[in-house]
Amino acid sequence: MAHALSLGRRCMGQTWPNPAVGCVIVRDGRIVGRGWTQAGGRPHAETEALRGAGEAARGATAYVTLEPCAHHGLTPPCTEALIAAGVARVVSPFADSDPRVSGRGFASLRAAGIEVTTGVLAAEAAEDHAGFLARIQRGRPRVTLKLASSFDGRIATASGESQWITGPEARVWVHGARARSDAVMVGAGTARADDPALTVRGFGARRQPVRVVVSRLLDLPLMGQLARTAQEAPVWICHGPDIRPEIREAWEGLGATLLPCRLAGRQIDPLSALEALGERGLTRVFCEGGGALAATLLGAGLVDELVGFTAGVVLGAEGRPGLGALGVGRLADAPRFELIESRAVGADVLHVWRPV
């Protein structure tokens, strides 16, 4: 099962809205087939592994990192493929929460005389499938917020200079995190100030993540990198109800997808934006700021993982803070996180936190 999980991780960020599943088929103590969900969400891991195993799958055990699907979609159910192949046993961590499956896959296998074992490496599988489960259970993708700052918590000098606070090793790590995510998200202020590409670079040819910008008025540069490359990698913009028709037409003409969202006061309601992304199939969103969007997500309790890079440079009080106003009047009201991991990445310190 550990090997199957490692195979599933190969396709993280490539399979949405489907989960990134791995499958290993073992017969007589020997691996005879293995597979993982392919880019775009199909073929599924089970059919890929069965194709490799061929006749050796008969009487074998299939280790699958999520309950095999039992519904007819664009492809036949994986349960039918496992039954037809003559697999004797299926091992899986837990049932799929998707209501189209949700125990039906295991029931179909058992009805066909196949032994089903569950609960194997369930915690590890839940971590890997956290984005898929968040979308199914909460209607929104899992959100990782990344902040890179100086030792004193600043993300830029007073003049706005920010490249580069952290070192090259940290930037490589960030590109890897983008590659494992369905989407990279920033606020309108960051899009205007930094003109980011938000693409994955240095990891070979691959399906690029969706570039998401949260912009109430859709007031983004029409000659910026996102606009110029909207035909090459997807650009989705979460906007409010009061945008000018000519701006809408311009962005749609460039190939961007526009997602209308509710407002909370004068800002886009962050839950509305995430629900719009979830409705479109996204499961894992990697947010890279800026400070206003980060504060909004934190204040709404929508950050599932907080990733910080701290550099050994000090910018002082005149530097720009990493977060916008949170309105915290009492320490007891501040969002709390617990440390999961801390280590050096080049000359910087990486720390990963989860909500308490």
Automatic annotation (TrEMBL):
Its cofactor is Zn(2+). Zn(2+) binds at residues 44, 69, 78. PROSITE patterns: CYT_DCMP_DEAMINASES_1 (PS00903), CYT_DCMP_DEAMINASES_2 (PS51747). Keywords: Hydrolase, Metal-binding, Multifunctional enzyme, NADP, Oxidoreductase, Riboflavin biosynthesis, Zinc. Residues 1-109 form the CMP/dCMP-type deaminase domain. GO terms for biological process: riboflavin biosynthetic process. In the C-terminal section; belongs to the HTP reductase family. This is Riboflavin biosynthesis protein RibD. It comes from Roseivivax halotolerans.
